[in-house]
């Protein structure tokens, strides 16, 4: 995989870091993932391109669309647990609504195959099972780390509520909390593997996630 051109890699890294900081000033970057992104960008063989720390979303749609194409419109989104009242306000605006939860997603570029494969391994080892290499060009070997938590609940169809709002939001909030815990596990492993920082063991984090999952019910 000698296709990566180090000069192109460095130029694109500089551009993406500048974009990240511009968007951070505009509050367009999830605050709970920004420190991790900044840290990753200090690694000589890595830069970040886009990310989301996990979210709850209300979407106007007859059925959920994973491409967000025609017939799908985001109405509201939150990157933290949300009161049922706020979801109800968003749902009131549309005739067809879905409540959706998505786990974290990180897109990174690596300068070499060894680093790219290690990023994928760390992603999968922390429960981001759909992680993989998605593109290779002169600017880097591009890795997607994708959280496995997802939830799609129909809330409203043709103007009529079809789900218990409070129960649906409670389920969405619990799913998001678990997704955030998985993201923190990923962050701890990345810091330990790439930067030599001390971090809890994977087993310790697994046990913590199990305890939280048990408490959430």
Task: Offer a few descriptive terms.
single chain; 217 residues; alpha+beta; SSo0622-like fold; five-stranded antiparallel sheet; four-stranded antiparallel sheet; 6 helices; 9 strands
Roughly what percent helix? 40-55%
Relative strand content: 15-25%
The largest beta-sheet arranges its strands as: 3-2-4-8-9
- Structurally, the number of domains stands at 1
CATH superfamily: tRNA wybutosine-synthesizing-like
The CATH architecture can be given as: 2-Layer Sandwich
Distance between the termini: 46 Å
Stretches with pLDDT under 50, minimum 5 residues: none
What's the total number of strands? 9
Q: What letter string, H or E per element, gives the SSE order?
A: HHEEEHEEHEEEEHH
**Rg from Cα:** 19 Å
Short description:
This protein has helices at residues 6-25, 34-40, 84-91, 113-125, 165-195, 202-216; strands at residues 46-52, 55-60, 73-78, 97-102, 105-110, 132-137, 140-146, 150-157, 160-161. The protein is an alpha+beta fold.
Structure description:
The protein has one domain: SSo0622-like fold. Helices cover 43% and strands 25% of the residues. The protein contains six helices and nine strands. The protein has a five-stranded antiparallel β-sheet with strand order 3-2-4-8-9, covered by helices on one side. Strands 1-5-7-6 form a four-stranded antiparallel β-sheet, sandwiched between helices. α5 (165-195) packs antiparallel against α6 (202-216). It is globular, with a radius of gyration of 19 Å. The N and C termini lie far apart (46 Å). The model has no long low-confidence stretch (mean pLDDT 91).
């Amino acid at each position: 995989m000698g296709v990566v051109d180090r000069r192109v890699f460095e130029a694109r890294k500089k551009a993406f870091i500048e974009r990240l900081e511009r968007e951070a000033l505009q509050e367009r970057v999830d605050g709970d993932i920004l420190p991790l992104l900044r840290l990753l960008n200090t690694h000589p063989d890595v830069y970040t391109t886009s990310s989301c720390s996990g979210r709850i979303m209300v979407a106007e749609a007859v059925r959920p669309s994973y491409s967000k194409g025609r017939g799908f419109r985001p109405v509201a989104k939150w990157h933290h647990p949300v009161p049922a009242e706020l979801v109800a306000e968003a749902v009131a605006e549309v005739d067809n609504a879905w409540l959706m939860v998505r786990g974290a997603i990180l897109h990174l570029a690596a300068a070499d195959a060894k680093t790219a494969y290690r990023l994928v391994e760390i992603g999968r080892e922390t429960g981001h099972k759909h992680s993989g290499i998605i593109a290779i060009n002169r600017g880097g070997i591009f890795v997607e780390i994708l959280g496995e938590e997802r939830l799609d609940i129909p809330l409203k169809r043709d103007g009529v509520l079809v789900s218990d709002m409070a129960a649906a939001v409670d389920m969405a909030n619990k799913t998001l909390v678990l997704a955030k815990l998985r993201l923190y596990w990923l962050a701890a492993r990345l810091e330990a593997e790439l930067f030599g920082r001390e971090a809890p063991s994977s087993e310790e984090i697994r046990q913590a996630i199990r305890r939280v999952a048990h408490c959430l019910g």
